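Practice problem 4.
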């Protein structure tokens, strides 16, 4: 789910097969961040294994770039034991956490979604740590984004554009939560919109909104099925923005990793099709999706897919082909 990613343009070749990270461990909706204080990589995931926010670490990323590297689950640490006051206290359902270091204030900001108290919908929250990437995190008492009349909001992801010196948060308006049935509750016609919303935020804190939000992409039912979700922004060396996202429903074989490109962060965005999935190359995975790419990771990317334990995290490396297309690449 980060920051500004500069990529070399790679010749097309044999695509690398994504690797396992934590073995058969349920670690859904992963995001990855480099911590400058410890020089380690940290991965964060949806609630599970008794914690509201799961966390693991590795000395390098992708971990297969180093013979001594591996991912280690920190199962005794819950980064968000007490979410914001607006979150349902008996069933918080914390999803898709994403953490970023804010150098101006030397703090860490976490974006997450939690179930809204008294509602079936989720909203986006923010929590801040002033000491360590492992917390303690203090949640804000009010949501960052909460369009509950449209089904709420989930899958928030931060992005820092070093070229323009601007910081953003992108998230999904969860219209599928209002659906009347079918896959992910929104497959039956006509279905509800599930747009991605881009909000600029103050560069010094990572959460104060700057100006109005912008809708950058929405589902096309014939292409995407009931929804699009899990937006993740990066930027190439040539200045092109890349938006990774998933389409269809995570519990169907059509779930995938797709991407779109744009010359301006607010669009127009051009859909480039599927990157990982059964229509192109699924590498033997069932329902791969939720891709998150990062700065400084040699084109590193994580995503989740079905496994015996639930949804396991996998990693790969990626680059840009001769024609500007995103390709998976050998590490």
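Answer key:
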């Amino acid at each position: 789910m980060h920051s500004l990613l500069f990529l070399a343009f790679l010749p097309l070749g044999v695509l690398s097969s994504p690797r396992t990270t934590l073995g058969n461990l349920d670690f859904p909706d992963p995001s990855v961040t480099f911590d400058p204080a410890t020089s380690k990589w940290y991965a964060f995931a949806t609630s599970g294994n008794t914690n509201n926010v799961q966390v693991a670490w590795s000395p390098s990323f992708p971990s297969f770039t180093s013979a001594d590297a591996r991912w280690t689950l920190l199962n005794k640490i819950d980064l968000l034991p007490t979410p914001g006051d607006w979150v349902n206290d008996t069933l918080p359902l914390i999803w898709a956490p994403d953490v970023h270091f804010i150098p101006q204030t030397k703090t860490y900001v976490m974006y997450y979604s939690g179930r809204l108290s008294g509602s079936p919908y989720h909203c986006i929250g923010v929590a801040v740590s002033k000491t360590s990437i492992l917390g303690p995190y203090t949640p804000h008492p009010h949501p960052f984004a909460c369009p509950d009349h449209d089904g709420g909001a989930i899958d928030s992801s931060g992005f820092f554009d070093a070229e323009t010196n601007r910081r953003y948060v992108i998230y999904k308006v969860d219209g599928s939560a209002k659906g009347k049935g079918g896959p992910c509750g929104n497959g039956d016609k006509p279905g509800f919109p599930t747009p991605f919303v881009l909000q600029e935020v103050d560069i010094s804190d990572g959460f104060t909104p700057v100006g109005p939000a912008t809708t950058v992409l929405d589902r096309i039912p014939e292409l995407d099925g009931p929804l699009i979700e899990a937006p993740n922004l990066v930027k190439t060396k040539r200045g092109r923005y890349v938006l990774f996202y998933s389409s269809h429903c995570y519990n169907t074989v059509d779930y995938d990793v797709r991407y779109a490109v744009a010359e301006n962060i607010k669009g127009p965005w051009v859909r480039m099709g599927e990157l990982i999935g059964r229509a192109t190359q699924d590498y033997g995975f069932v329902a791969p999706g939720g891709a998150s790419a990062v700065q400084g990771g040699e084109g590193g990317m994580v995503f989740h897919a079905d496994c015996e334990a639930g949804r396991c995290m996998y990693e790969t490396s990626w680059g840009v082909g001769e024609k500007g297309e995103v390709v998976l690449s050998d590490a």
